[in-house]
Request: fold
Amino acid sequence: MIVEELLLPFGIGFAVFLFGMKTMEVGMQEWAGPFLHVWMRRFTVTPLRGLITGTLATVLLQSSDAVTVIAISLVNAGVFTFRDTLGIVLGANIGASLTTDMLALDLSAQALPFLIVGGAVWLALLLFARPKLMPARYLSFLTPIRHLALTASGFASVFIGMERMTSIIPDLQSRGLFLWFLEQTQQSLGWGLAAGAAVTAVIQSSAATIAVTMGLAEVKAITIDLGVAIVLGANIGTCSTALLATIGGSRAGRYVAWAHILLNVGGSLLFFPWIHELGLLASLGTDSPYEQIARSQTWFNILCSLLALPLCYLGFNKRSRPR
Reply:
């Protein structure tokens, strides 16, 4: 019964959601990847420029983890110094919140047509946009369109997966374990923080954790304060990816990962006593709990990055980059 009503629908939705996120990431990397490394080297000479670059790179790649891992790899290769990457790490968090804001858009009704059209365009160009079938001048124009069509298909899959995952919420509300969890959160929102961190570390997707949290808040299954606590926890849980990226890397690469962890864990603990105020800030301009959860992630990441930015200038030397 539990398998049919909860685990199977959630598992299918989660798989579709992750497939969509990965497809978006691959599509944007194929489109932006050729110039991304050069662009990051050129525009990270100060922490502020690094922040802007990290934000734009995350929006393009649709993955803060990918940007953080790229930064770690560039440090391991001796292209960047540790200080060069500090702004990128801050910007990656801001860029990730913009991805969460996209989830607040109500595009479920348009998701399936988007998927069909995007998939059809991608498949047609994959089959027919080949050197033997058309001139090179057409290929240079059609190849980016193919990558963007793949991105559109992934974008649609994200919303289809979200809709499937949140479909279990009415059944989830009736379960004793969920009610027990809500009772515990009445005593301390730390339960929400811990749950967000644990779930994200296991499934390796803070976006999926936040998407389900948005759905729970929308149907009033959880309060806004509890939703914000889970969002803060999700930011802690996402640090596990950066830790994995340091395995076998240099000491400077590990420093980058720990800077990412310090930002997310330190920021979450800093804002934990101000969860209610963060929820009020997120409610400005909207009455939708769905949007408020997404905006709390945005405000959290922006405020954390802006608070940490001045620290990146301590002893910063533009000439420290390896030649």
In short: Residues 2-320 form one domain. The mean pLDDT is 79. The chain has 15 helices and no strands.
